[in-house]
Write a structure and sequence with these properties.
The structure holds 2 protein chains of 2 kinds.
Chain A: E1 6-9, H1 21-35, E2 39-45, H2 49-55, E3 61-66, H3 75-89, E4 93-97, H4 100-113, E5 117-121, E6 123-127, E7 130-137, E8 142-149, E9 153-157, E10 172-175, E11 186-192, E12 206-210, H5 220-229, E13 233-236, H6 238-242, E14 263-267, H7 273-276, E15 284-289, E16 302-305, H8 308-324
Parallel strand pairs in A: 1-2, 1-4, 2-3, 3-10, 4-9, 5-9, 12-13, 12-14, 14-15, 15-16
Antiparallel strand pairs in A: 6-7, 7-8
Chain B: E1 2-6, E2 9-11, E3 33-35, H1 37-53, E4 56-63, H2 68-77, E5 81-86, H3 95-109, E6 113-117, H4 128-136, E7 140-150, E8 155-161, E9 167-173, E10 176-180, H5 192-198, E11 203-207, E12 220-227, E13 236-237, H6 242-256
Parallel strand pairs in B: 1-4, 1-6, 4-5, 5-11, 6-10, 7-10
Antiparallel strand pairs in B: 2-3, 7-8, 8-9
Classes of the chains: A alpha/beta, B alpha/beta.
């Protein structure tokens, strides 16, 4: 019987986002259970036997292509493997993590299959015979509940620490050979590891991060002053790297560093998915933003709506006076 | 070198759009629009490549009449031509239809390089560029942060982002498409004067409906309902005067033992 199984493309290795696998499998298991189908995981990389074995505990089957030649991400080769798997098992859905590689592959597969792409899903709802996906629109200011009519569902699933898959045990791990794509118009040259300079923000207990709302570069001194007062480190969100103030080693987010400090203070950060991905597992999250509708307040524990230039010096002074008291 | 870039006209970043009564769309009336942010990065990259390799840059927008404003921004930045694919019925929200129309336009123009932004700020889908390349049968690299074109070899060395700060370098045959990541190069400020002046530049306009394009779509995504995101309820908002809010905040953090 076809069209009941779910394929999940998991990630392992350099530049891949292994942390996204759990939420992905949870979503896949929900869809598959609704259809009475299986979850089949595809994994392509180098030296990934351990991850494959671990994933086998949570899915029905893992197809793993583990070879040195898969060390660099080769989109057309992986796409070929996905297409082959789709033909073989005729799934109702193919799911990816909402990551750099997941988005790349999902869009490619969706274009090949001529289906809509449901990217960036934060929840899957299966009720009364209908399946809906929840995803943000308009920079996260509006949520959309979407359905797909006809064809295979291709979706990317946001990472969430709250969604851990149930342990199934006994999933088969099957080694497969994945051939290079015949189309060699895209040739991977090398994977470049991030250059880590200065402070490792991933190791800090307290992170004070500034975003676009900081405004002028000299205002960032206020973020640094607060970081110093609380004994933490300063960091930033993506826009400040894009405009050249900082390098990506200071950046918290999907394309920067994932941090889990006991205290995270977000200053003038709106809370785009890219950023939230890298800090939402923090112990206590404080958000300061002039926009009361900023998505960051949805994941924060404590929020203040107001002007950073006024609030940050006040907080720094208050912290200092508390410490000396 | 013939370079084509796409720019979408999307609701401005500052405001939360009002959800329409049907809950399946937003109220467009009174909404402010702007050129999509990553598309501006795509335009800057296109102009840089023209600077290095000579040639022309054509900017294309697909959308209702108001979308011409996105082309005024593109002209103010320095593109050579502007093309507007006017969508009356679909409001430019049907990606498959947009891709089919875009493919017609670029085939007619001819091209060596196409740059699009990585995703549009309204639908946050991230499909258009990749689907366009697939439709055209040309190679595509997504999340691109650097492009070095070797015009004689008809190839480019392109760097893309991976997760966790990793990057990957590819060699790609031209013609190709790159979906451009934020920050590929600085977006220069366009003055109001330059944008006003750009309004007099000629925009080649064609109607999507008149192009008689059928989308190649095998499936269709439909919006069942739009809603405003709910706060998790866990966020304690500290209202009141700034000094008071700050005192409460710091007392809270001390109590939690985090500072």
């Amino acid at each position: 019987m076809g069209s009941i199984d779910v394929v999940v493309y998991c990630e392992a290795g350099a530049g891949q986002t292994e942390a996204s696998n759990a939420s992905l499998i949870t979503a896949g298991a929900k869809l598959a259970a609704n259809q009475g189908g299986r979850v089949v995981c595809l994994l392509v990389g180098n030296d990934i036997a351990e991850v494959a074995g671990e994933l086998g505990q949570y899915v029905d089957e893992v197809r793993v292509a583990d070879a040195p030649r898969h060390a660099d991400y080769d989109p057309l080769t992986v796409l070929g493997a996905l297409q082959k798997l789709v033909v073989e098992i005729d799934p109702c859905a193919v799911l990816f993590g909402h990551t750099h590689i997941g988005m790349d592959l999902a869009a490619r597969l969706s274009a090949k299959l001529g289906t809509s792409l449901i990217s960036n899903c934060f929840d899957v709802q299966c009720e009364a015979g209908a399946t809906h996906f929840l995803r943000p629109m308009y920079r996260g200011r509006v949520n959309a509940k979407v359905a797909v009519e006809g064809g295979i569902i291709v979706a990317t699933i946001q990472q969430s620490g709250a969604r851990q898959p149930d342990l199934k045990g006994g999933g088969q791990v099957i080694a497969i050979e994945v051939e290079y794509a015949e189309d060699r118009r895209i040739r991977p040259l090398k994977t470049i590891a991030p250059t880590r300079s200065g402070v490792d923000i991933a190791k800090a207990d307290i992170v004070v991060a500034g975003g676009r709302g900081v405004g002028e570069k000299e205002n960032f001194a206020l973020v640094e002053a607060l970081a110093a007062a609380v004994g933490g480190v300063s960091a930033c969100s993506r826009p400040l790297v894009d405009i050249g103030w900082f390098t990506s080693s200071s950046q918290v987010g999907l394309s920067g560093t994932t941090v889990k400090p006991k205290l995270y203070i977000a200053c003038g950060i709106s809370g785009a998915v890219e950023h939230v991905h890298g800090m939402k597992e923090s112990g206590t999250i404080v958000a300061i933003n002039k926009d009361p509708d900023a998505p960051i307040f949805r994941i924060a524990d404590i929020g203040i709506v107001g002007d950073l230039l006024e609030l940050l010096p006040l907080i720094t002074t208050e912290v200092k006076s508390t410490r000396t008291a | 070198m013939k370079i084509i870039t796409f720019v979408k006209h999307v609701p401005s970043s500052g405001a939360t759009p009002r959800i329409a009564v049907t809950k399946r769309g937003i109220e467009e009336e009174g909404l402010a629009y702007e050129a999509n942010e990553t598309d501006l990065y795509a335009i800057e990259e296109a102009l840089y490549q023209r600077f290095v390799h000579q040639g022309t840059v054509t900017a294309v927008t697909i959308g209702p009449r108001r979308a011409q404003a996105a082309l005024h921004v593109a002209y103010a930045k320095g593109v050579d031509h502007g093309i507007h694919v006017l969508t009356e019925g679909s409001h430019g929200t049907d990606t498959a239809l947009n891709v089919a129309a875009a493919a017609e336009v670029v085939k007619k123009q001819g091209f060596d390089l196409i740059f699009t932004g990585i995703q549009a700020d309204d639908d946050l889908q991230g499909l258009f560029g990749i689907a366009l390349a697939e439709h055209l049968g040309i190679p595509v690299i997504s999340a691109v942060t650097q492009v070095n074109v070797s015009a004689d070899k008809k190839t480019a060395v392109v760097t893309r982002e991976l997760g966790g700060g990793y990057k990957e370098e590819f060699e790609v045959d031209l013609p190709c498409l790159c979906t451009v990541q934020f920050g590929i190069r600085p977006v220069r400020y366009s003055s109001i004067m330059a944008i006003v002046k750009a309004r007099s530049r000629k925009i080649e306009s064609m109607s999507l409906e008149a192009m008689k394009i059928a989308s190649r779509q095998a499936s269709r995504m439909s919006i069942a309902e739009l809603s405003y995101p709910e706060n998790s309820g866990q966020c304690q908002m500290l209202d009141g005067a700034p000094a008071e809010a700050v005192r409460t905040l710091v007392a809270n953090l001390v109590e939690k033992g985090v500072i």
